[in-house]
Amino acid sequence: MAELARDEEFTAFVTSRAVWLRRVAYLLCADWHRADDLVQESITKLYLHWGRVSRAENPDGYARAVLVNAFLAEQRTAWWRRTRPAARPPEQSPPPEADLAVSLDLREALAALPPRQRATVVLRYYCDLSVEQTAAAMGCSNGNVKSQSSRALEALRRSALLRPAGRSEA
Question: What is the pTM of this model?
Answer without folding.
Answer: 0.65
